[in-house]
Amino acid sequence: MTDRTVTLAHGAGTERTRELLADLVVDRFGDAPADPAGVGLAALDDGAVLPTDDGAVVITTDSHVVDPPSFPGGDVGRLAACGTINDLAAMGATDPLGLSSAVVVEAGTPVDRVDAYLDSMAAVCDRVGCPVRTGDTKVVRDGEVDEVVVTTTGVARIERGAHLPAAGLSPGDRLVVSGPVGDHGVALLAAREDFEFASPLTSDVAPVAHLVAAAREVGRVTAATDPTRGGFATAVNELADAADLGLVVEERAVPVADATAGAAEVLGIDPLTVACEGRIVLGVAPEDAERVRDRLRDEPGGADARIVGRAVADHPGEVVLDTGVGERYLPVPTGETLPRIC
Amino acid sequence: MAETTDRRAVEVVVTGTVQGVGFRPFVARTAAEYDLDGRVRNTDRGVVVRFEGAPDAVSAAVDRLRSDPPPLASVDAVTASDREPTGDGGFDIDRSTADEERTTLVPPDTGLCPACRDDIRDPDSRFAGYWATSCVDCGPRFAVTEALPYDRERTAMAAFPLCEDCKRAYEDPTDRRFHAQTVACPTCGPTLSLRDADGTERATGTAALDRLATRLRAGEIVGIKGTGGAHLSCLATDPEAVERLRERTGRPAKPFAVMAPSPAAVERFASVSEAEAETLTDQRRPITVLDGNGATWLDAVAPGLHTVGVMLPYSGLHHLLFGRLDAPLVMTSANPPGRPMCTTNDALLDLDCIDAALVHDRRIVARCDDSVVRHVDGERRFLRRSRGWVPERLPNPVDAGATVLAVGGRSDVTVAVADGSSVVPSQHVGAVDDPATAAFLREATDHLLSLCGTDPDVVAHDHHPGFRTTDVADDLAGESHGVYHHHAHAAALLGEHERERAVVVAADGTGYGPDGVVRGGEVLDATLSDSGRVGGLSEFRLPGGEAAVERPARILAALFDEERAVAAVARDPEITLDAAATIHEQAASGLNSPPTSSAGRFLDAVSALLGCCHERRYRGEPALRLEALAARGDPIDVEPPVERRGGERVLVVDEAMTLIADLAADRPARDVAATAQRLLADGLATVAIRTARERDRSAVGFTGGVAYNDAITRRFRERVEAAGHTFLGHRDVPPGDGGLAYGQAVAASARLSD
Ligand SMILES: [Fe+3]
Ligand SMILES: [Mg+2]
Ligand SMILES: [Zn+2]
Ligand SMILES: [Zn+2]
């Protein structure tokens, strides 16, 4: 028994989220899979890998709530499709079988809007070749949710052992990011608060399965994760944590779009700490890193791919940001904006 | 056996800091000088001496113990009682046992003593021109010692076996170098080497010093390996060289310390009070922050400030260098950006910013930065308590019966070990925000624990969820104990005054409060074990979080109505009118705008409002520049807006800022700056004094980084004393975050014994 309540910070995809998950979920469902080729819940990876006799099944699920439901560059429907397809891709499953989609709608929401969200979802599914195979719809009272909650589950088959675990990095591996970071998070904040900026902001929400597939065609990819909640900073910390090695990220190499950088500066937000919804961070064997980067640049959504860092044996579990004039830790954002400097 | 008639014998007990400072050899020399017999030994009561001889000589020798102790000793009491003369001849120094050594720590590092200075200048001395001479009264200690007991084989000097002459001196009780563990001469000691940046050796020994002087004179930037670390040096009087140093090190504005050849040379560019002169010439040689006198080269050394940090030469190397070059030198710590100071030749030669380096082959065991002090309101205050003072003990009012290790905060970190009735703070560690400094934190902790001969039962740390020092604490001991930031500051003040309770004002930049709010303008009713906020600054927002710390004009967005806010924020040349409008909206929405009650942020915001400083390029810059501006102005009489709010008394920050902005419309900025500082002092004093009266507390203290501000501290003390209270200010513990570890140790000890 405890009298604690869940706070918004628990949902921010940060250290607090991890604490809550550890307490409530991992203890209960986190038993390691019997088959070493599997990935279970305790790994807190992008999805689960369930080995079968002739291969493996990858499964992942996410609920999508977003404020506002429609934003520059996308909407909750597009987000729901991309989020799940990208989680599969981050597990190395780039050719999904299909999705399930459960929609909870707030009474009073115009039908046209729901229609538009589902259109967006369908467009992504068509492009990736990953149809919605099953679904569910529920209606709740006015105010019980904000317009819609969309829960998508994705399933894919892969060859046994072909998945990309978060823990796959080795010292020397390079980190490659497929494009500018922070576009989604900054665009969303601005839309939510109605802030105007000189250059328009657009979410990056897009599928990345083709990027992961292209990268694996030309090089040895050792790990992958999609930097969603908590942004790039959280994603790379998860990689360091999972593999129990250190990462060094060159701050100046991490791509940030000008419009996003400008808005982030005005708001005092670090683009490295807010969500992307159309990017992938890959660990790549050192000798293949440039080839992978160049290949990504030929793909839609990969034009600004960069090599941004490397794995090291020092400071296991920690990410160090090389700022060009010095080094500092790049922590997982805490979900509270507490200045540390004085 | 001598005749016992006409002889007098006494037993003398000397207490104070009298062990590990060459006291026994001093007693032996004194006995020899007065032709006395007897013995001397260390005990846990202090040094116990027996003198026997001619009655006049005995009295004179006892007086001598009191009046002329070795420079590193500090004598509390000399008590003599008569004994029966025995007629035994000779004078013995009893070796202390390892057990007795335990009660003593390794002594701190100090500057060269006058006798050694004479030796290196005396052409006939075997130490003539030798950079690394030392004796029992001076030289490196802490920085070269690995473990106790303090003997040569456990120091970096183990690599330099004594030559015949040095061995003789080491074994001669009447010699100043008797049992001086760091004794060395040109024959047996470490050697200097002057290298190009690529490592090529250009000269060694005294020739290396000649080259060093030549290259400095030519405007070069040179790394100099010293006692506990390394300096970057260039001619302070050559603004081009100083600019080059700034560019190459990426330190555009940080004030550099200066080393001047002599006290007379200091007087040529800074004003020195009698008390400051005493600090400056203290054998421990701290950097002393003085008011500059406007010399034109000072602005490159300390841009925009009215002060300059100055020290006098401390090692033999420095004295010899100034024998070749009679000009002040910049002496700033040599470190790769964001990392601790270099301690090895390779690390120093690896720096991209140097043209040459003077290195040597004596290993640095413990990195130890220069100490920095400033006389604030007439009292010496530590900005950094490190070389010369570490590892001395400070009082712990409550013995917890357990060893407490405290790990400090984030910036200016020190660690401290509380063991029994004392606390030993470590040297300066720095901002723990990168792996290299985190590694130094662990090293410094291990070294200190080994010197104290103890292991921690409990680790005390700050409550801020983002501080790395807390992670280190978690790794170090089973039990960890959080101490709130401003309680640690208050406990530090109470601890060094050995007081149980007081009203304490803790005014600084950032500290995580019990309610999760970033605090820093706190009036606390404090005891050693606990404290509660009774008032202070009202809360205001920091639009952009850390961005508002970096660009303080942002803070103004939260303090004014829209029109005034936008104009004020947009005065920052890096912020457009559109951006200023957005920042104002941001403050109103609360997005990424944490609330705070920080006095440091209030001063930063005033600095931006007056156009004095728009960007914090080093810690404290906006407030320091405001202080420099205010130093030229006169405060205008205003009443601080203080009111009751929800059980607290607060200085209402938005009203105060509006008042200041109204004044700024038609008064000179320097007068407004002085007014803002006074308003802050008055506001905090008003709340503190009323609280003290209501709660019947006799003492009112002032701590936190704002307590380095001369005018604010003075005004606050005057108000407190005028109201009939005892004022408590820091003497031995830094008011800033360098004193947190001590405060955490004291607070945790008190709480454990509750
Ligand atoms: Fe502080
Ligand atoms: Mg996910
Ligand atoms: Zn000496
Ligand atoms: Zn010698």
Automatic annotation (TrEMBL), chain A:
Residues 45-157 form the PurM-like N-terminal domain. It comes from the Archaea. Residues 171-320 form the PurM-like C-terminal domain. Gene3D superfamilies: PurM-like C-terminal domain (3.90.650.10), PurM-like, N-terminal domain (3.30.1330.10). GO terms for biological process: protein maturation. Signal peptide: none annotated. InterPro entries: HypE, PurM-like_C_dom, PurM-like_C_sf, PurM-like_N, PurM-like_N_sf. Coiled coil: none annotated. Belongs to the HypE family. This is Hydrogenase expression/formation protein HypE. It comes from Halorientalis regularis.
